[in-house]
Amino acid sequence: AQSVAQPEDQVNVAEGNPLTVKCTYSVSGNPYLFWYVQYPNRGLQFLLKYITGDNLVKGSYGFEAEFNKSQTSFHLKKPSALVSDSALYFCAVRAGNRDDKIIFGKGTRLHILP
Amino acid sequence: NAGVMQNPRHLVRRRGQEARLRCSPMKGHSHVYWYRQLPEEGLKFMVYLQKENIIDESGMPKERFSAEFPKEGPSILRIQQVVRGDSAAYFCASSSSGVGYNEQFFGPGTRLTVL
User: Fold this and answer.
1) CA A30 to CA A72: how far, in whole Å?
2) What's the farthest any 2 CA atoms get from each other in chain A?
3) Res A96: pLDDT
4) B39: cis peptide before it, omega within 30°?
5) How far, in Å, CA of B111 to CA of A27, rounded?
6) Integer Cα distance of A96 and B101 in angstroms
7) In terms of pLDDT, which residue wins out, A27 or A90?
8) Cβ–Cβ pairs < 8 A, chains A and B
């Protein structure tokens, strides 16, 4: 069965510092991996995805994520955090099969401190 | 280019009433997904539909909940005889195909409150 773990409920980072939001996954076969962000009272917005190819994926708003097959991880990163990055971040995985559903992690709340 | 539309944005129902949530996918998208989000929890998959077909309803309770995506018009998630535990945010997402690497685009959600 597919699963996603986001081990941190909350991450606090000072503005200007690099940030990392962790995600590990379990899936049979090749994974498709996604990161979404949710601002208060809004729907989820797509940030980036990994399908195949380069392990480092670049996405919206300066975010990037690194796919590590041996560690089954897909951590979200940004070199320099902004206060406006404060939001709820979701990692998601989908097995490489048609019609398989996406499984979301529980989310990590990111607080960027001014 | 309008995104995924959901209405109403907020819905208040008394116990025992019916709740009907609507979702219009992005233009050109024929795949719709419904999720439920409880406070401080992640998104729980409920159902996946294509036009006139339910593909996967494994996440939807077998009683009181139903979903449809007719040939014309929006997708509807219907909750009959609502109970307090149904209070949650319900999100709809759409994609252009069911291929696994296509991202889903989310609507703003319907926040259901059951009194």
Assistant:
1) 11
2) 44
3) 63
4) no
5) 31
6) 8
7) A90
8) 63
Which residues in chain A are contacts of B106 at CB distance < 8 A? Answer: 36, 43-45
Structure tokens, B22: 């609507």
Element of type H or E holding A95: strand A87-95
In this complex, do B99 and A98 lie within 8 Å of one another by their Cβ atoms?
yes
Q: How many CA atoms lie within 13 A of A7 on its CB side?
A: 8
Q: What is the pLDDT along chain B (115 residues), one digit of tens a residue?
A: 579 999 999 999 999 999 999 999 999 898 999 999 987 778 899 999 998 899 999 999 999 999 999 999 999 999 999 999 999 999 999 988 766 677 889 999 999 999 9
- Do the Cβ atoms of B93 and A94 come within 8 Å? no
> How far from B21 is each of B8, B10, B36, B110, CA to CA, in Å?
7, 10, 12, 7
Question: How many angstroms separate the most distant Cα atoms in chain B?
Answer: 40
Q: Round to whole Å and give the CA distance between A39 and B48.
A: 24
Cα B111 to its chain centre, rounded Å, is 11
B43 touches chain A (CB under 8 A): yes
Whether A8 and chain B come into contact, CB under 8 Å, resolves to: no
Tokens of B37: 């989000």
Q: How far is A17 from chain B (nearest CA, A)?
A: 26
Closest listed residue to residue A5, CA positions, set A109, A66, A98, A92? A92
Which residue in A has a C-alpha nearest to residue B48's C-alpha? A101
